[in-house]
Amino acid sequence: MKLKLFSCAITLAGMLSAQAQHVMEVKTAKLGAPVSSTMYGLFFEDINFAADGGLYGELVKNRSFEFPQSYMGWRVFGNVELKNDGPFERCPHYVVLSDPGHKERRTGLQNEGYFGIGIEKGKEYRFSVWAKAPKGNSQIRVQLINEFTGEEHQEFVQQKLDITSSDWKQYEIVLKSKRTEPRAQLRIFLSSPNPVALEHVSLFPVDTYKGRKNGLRRDLAQALADMKPGVFRFPGGCIVEGTTLDSRYQWKNTIGRVENRPLNRNRWEDTFDYRYYADYYQSYGLGFFEFFQLCEDIGAEPLPVLSVGLACQFQNGESAHAKMDELQPFIDDCLDLIEFANGPADSKWGKIRAEMGHPEPFNMKYIGIGNEQWDTPYFERLKPFVAAVRAKYPNIKIVGTSGPDSEGKMFEKGWVAMKEQKADLVDEHFYRPESWFLGTPEAKERYGNCGALRYDSYDRKGPKVFAGEYACHGKGKKWNHYETSLYEAAFMTSLERNADIVEMATYAPLFAHIDGWQWRPDMIWYDNIRMFKSVSYYVQQMYAMNKGTNVLSLTTKDPGDKKGKKMVPVAGQEGMDGLFASSVYDKGTGEVIIKVINTSKQPQAVQLNLQGMTGERTAETLTLQHNGSMDDENTLDQPDKIRPVAGSVKCETTGKKQQTVLNDEVPAMAFRLYKVKK
Ligand code: AHR
Questions:
Q1: Residue 256 to residues 144, 214, 251, 375, 528: CA-CA distances in angstroms?
Q2: Which of 226, 279, 373, 648 is the most buried (most CB within 10 A)?
Q3: By C-alpha distance, which of 603, 580, 581 is closest to 592?
Q4: Rounded mean pLDDT of 24-53?
Q5: How many CB atoms lie within 10 A of CB 577?
Q6: What is the CA radius of gyration of the chain?
Q7: How far is the CA of 513 from the centre of ligand 1 (A)?
Q8: pLDDT at residue 6 tops 60
Q9: Does 4 have pLDDT greater than 50?
Q10: Helix or strand or coil: residue 158?
Q11: What's the gap in Å between 604 CA and the centre of ligand 1?
């Protein structure tokens, strides 16, 4: 190094290992492209029991007896009759509990929840039920039980509830538990001679996110908020399409009072017979209103995705899809959704939103049309949707898709079609191995444009990129582990550097129940009472919380350029020793933020020349690093095993102008983020 370093008594440079130093030039005085506020977001799909059994706070499965097998999730005993002329026309089933016919016999029912019901010591649970007592006052006993205990009593909480009206009415009691039971059940006994009719039997924690009655599981929703996501894509994923068109996600069925939202079969019930869950349905209790509300709560732009009239293309041939002359109801769904979200409170759909408690518009700006569709069946169907949305809502940004692959013929064709149809954004999906994320020569040979230089060559004149689903899937190791998360971090430098073309990016999938998943890796895992954030979560969070407002040029000398003049991005190319880096400036905080990922097995010495900055400073750092096996991950028992750790590095100065220089050694297989006040 020719640079002469001043003013720092103990320079880190002296302590650096024998590795060659990597000098990077960061142009802090020249602001580059703005970083979109939507850049790092979340993608929610009801896969892996992410909604019912996950984020949605309801603890009772099949609460309205609407599953095709009416008692799925329930065990009934004694004199129980199923009826179907209940008070809610789209969920007409209910049960009548009558005297068992002998004083020593019992009538009742028991619900298993989702892999049990998670009950926590000291917490309150709201039991509610629609009921009537057709033959005079009746009573039920509501219990939380541990069926598999050796103790004298299975119940650990019990309360009586009088049903006092012969008309349907909602009753509510709050149960408080003195102990934690992760796999409890709900048991209801008829405890009067008179019969009782029960419908929509529900149990929620009182302490939901934001304290709402039809609310979300607090810890999971909080984890989303803690990421400060810029955008929230929902409700899928393949469930937008359905295994058949009639099981596609239909947003109109998900609004209005929860008791009357019809059940839908979950597409993920049908997908893998080696991880099969016959009881995977969508109650729609977490519906579009709740999604919009969540977006508002966590400060993310809502990005709903709707069916384009195609059932899942992987699972079906042409005959399964809506024909071209059958598309109008699907197009209406798009237009009506925009009115539901943004229309005045006296418009047809805006009125429903207002009645649900949100008279102000949700101010939705984006709509996705089609999930992961490809080829002519998609392109021809998309056209009338685009025309209709543009005509009525010219300011809404339309998100099209390039299909399930991140390269290849269909992908290219998708991009051409999206350009022709002037989509505002193209949703790309890539679940790819380590080599793809690192952009190794072998991966380039096999896949073409991959790795952290992927977006540098994209056409700047067409639609913007939405990396709508991506995750590094370890080759032969398709589960969450540290190494793949680190490679995601490395790849994400390319999203940041190319913020002029990449407008948003969302890792996928988001949630997984430890006892009921179909797909790995996932960002957040949980059981009935605990959760952990994966290393991928922390990677996403480090980017999302430090996205800055403008890109800064960060380059180094091209190791392949003999003259040593050409400057190139730091993107893991040959000679970079596994380093990836990018930089942004944050106008709000006045900070220069630099992200460096070292994917090599050795520590790497880096010198960051902060051009345009002078004087000594201290950089705050955040380091994600793991000294154990690269296959490790956080767990329910050790949720904090791997997480970013804060630190600091003293910057030095060089030259007459006293330019600020940051010298550091980035640990092997680590992601270090630097923040320096300008
Ligand atoms: O994220 C899991 C699935 O991957 C999504 O449902 C689908 O869009 C993609 O194939």
A1: 30, 12, 11, 36, 28
A2: 373
A3: 581
A4: 98
A5: 17
A6: 28
A7: 17
A8: no
A9: no
A10: strand
A11: 36
